[in-house]
Amino acid sequence: MFWLWEAGNARASVNLQHIAITGIFIYAAFIAPPASGVTARPSRKIAGVERYGVEDAHRLYQRIWGSSFHFGRWEAGVTSIEDAVLCCKMRIGEALALDTHQHALEAGSGLGETARFLANAYDCHVTATNISEMHLHECIARTDKANMSASVTCAYADYHAMPFEDGYFDAYVMQEALVHATDKPRVMAEAFRVLKPGGRMVFTDQTTMVETLSKADCDRIIERHGSPDLFDAAAFERAAEQAGFHILANQDWSSHMARHFAELVLCLESDYAALARDIDPVVIDWNLDTWRFARDKACDGAMGWVFIAAEKPA
Predict the structure, then answer these.
(1) All residues at 6 or more sequence positions from 110 whose CB lies less than 8 Å from its CB, including other chains
(2) Distance CA 241, CA 222 (A)
(3) Given pLDDT bands bounded at 50, 70 and 90, which one contains residue 42?
(4) In the chain, what are the domain boundaries?
């Protein structure tokens, strides 16, 4: 949920484990030099952390957030961040209504946890796409380790211009990815294009109520997201409808996001000393400040979280 990208209009059928796209420009929320052996690409860097490699931020997220960098649903009985995140994946899977042997596309797949969950739970095939080369390489490694390479394809792709044929997929999923798009209507149009008639799109994303925020707060969120606009739930729904989708559900999950950020802050604060032994304190402090900001704004109702399910008319 931390990367956004732009790419050319190359389109091809998805029958390869790795798809190379040229002309891609990466915005990395935490920055920087790619991992060894990965081709460097231009990146825009966030002030305050541009001197620090992505490895520190990546380790911080795995230590605090777990293996899936997404918000979670804190339903009854849920007491851990990882269980809350899993609960969210379960609700997404239910909304996608996948059948055995169908093919789903995940945009902004991170380390591929959602893709592997869906492939395992529904006995379907999932193409997990990303533009973070480090995340893509780790997604491939984790998928291989789980012996799921036959059901999960890891592909380098840009959701503004997907390299797939029209009407190729049965389902399309995103988690906290669209918020980073430089052109959200274009992303929605691409989702509509690559789906088969009757296919479903399900996504969750952060919402922003601009009218309740100061200009400084809005600028801070824009810088964080790397996106020129801030959408509330109604704007996300309109963009989907304008792309041609029929809305099946639009649910406010904001209370879960507020709880999630509160839990992240609590975990980081309580484990700060241990984290600082092998993670740069500047990276820790920047994220702690960002998570506190998000927690407070979510509690105030200025930021939220939406779940949207939509269908491409048959």
Answers:
(1) 1, 68, 69, 70, 130, 132, 135, 139
(2) 24
(3) very low
(4) 3-7+16-311
Tokens, residue 42: 């231009």
- Encode 259-290: b = buried (16+ Cβ within 10 Å), e = exposed: bbbbbbbebbeeeeeebeeebbeebbebbbeb
Q: At what angle do helices 281-300 and 215-225 cross, to 10 degrees?
A: 130
- Tens of pLDDT along 261-297? 999 999 999 999 999 999 999 999 999 999 999 999 9
Architecture of domain 3-7+16-311: 3-Layer(aba) Sandwich (3.40)
* Percent of the chain scoring above 90 in pLDDT: 75
167, 300, 301, 290: which is closest to 233 by C-alpha? 301
Handedness of CA 197, 120, 152, 189 (dihedral sign): positive
* Mean pLDDT, residues 123-141 taken together: 93
Measure the CA dihedral 282/287/290/296, to 10°: -120
* Both structure tokens of 146: 């789980």
Bridge-based pairing state of the strands 3-6 and 25-28:
antiparallel
In the chain the beta strands, taken as DSSP E runs, fall at 3-6, 25-28, 43-44, 103-107, 125-130, 152-156, 169-175, 195-208, 246-252, 303-311
Is the backbone of residue 68 left (phi > 0), alpha (psi -120 to 50) or beta? beta
